[in-house]
Design a protein that fits this description.
Number of strands: 6
Shape: elongated
Strand order of the largest sheet: 1-2-3
Largest sheet: 3 strands, antiparallel
Length: about 140
């Protein structure tokens, strides 16, 4: 909404969505069922948004935080603290949301290399302005 993330949905990997940021509409047809329209690219009907319990809880809580004005930076930083594989749900979601953080916004995280509190967000990555460390 207004070019910022507003809600998070879990979808199956089998959809073969195009890569990159997508613009489209998710239309609620009835309770629990949606239709996704991505311009001229694709349309998926009768979507039943089912996810495992952890994905469902994560996406609902993140959506609630986004709808109530929580800065994306804080959501990303909380997700980055979750242990897991590089391609886990929370790590993937964190990478996507990072791309919406305004360039050069100061992070609340300490640099893992020099331990200074001089990390900033730039191009979807965290970078240390003291030692040059990059999180990407």
């Amino acid at each position: 909404m207004n070019e910022k993330p507003y809600e998070v949905f879990c979808v199956p990997n089998t959809w073969n969505l195009p890569k990159g940021k997508l613009t489209g509409n998710l239309i609620k047809e009835k309770k629990g069922h949606y239709r996704l329209s991505i311009g001229d690219v694709m349309e998926i009907e009768n979507i039943n948004l089912e996810a495992n319990e952890y994905q469902a809880v994560s996406s609902r809580l993140i959506s609630t935080a986004l709808r109530h004005g929580t800065d994306i930076k804080y959501i990303v930083e909380q997700l980055s603290k979750v242990e897991g594989e590089l391609f886990s749900f929370n790590k993937s979601l964190s990478r996507i949301l990072k791309s919406y953080i305004i360039k050069n916004v100061k992070s609340t995280l300490n640099c893992p290399q020099c331990t200074e509190k001089t990390m900033i967000y730039e191009e979807g990555c965290t970078k240390c302005t003291s030692c040059g460390y990059s999180g990407c």
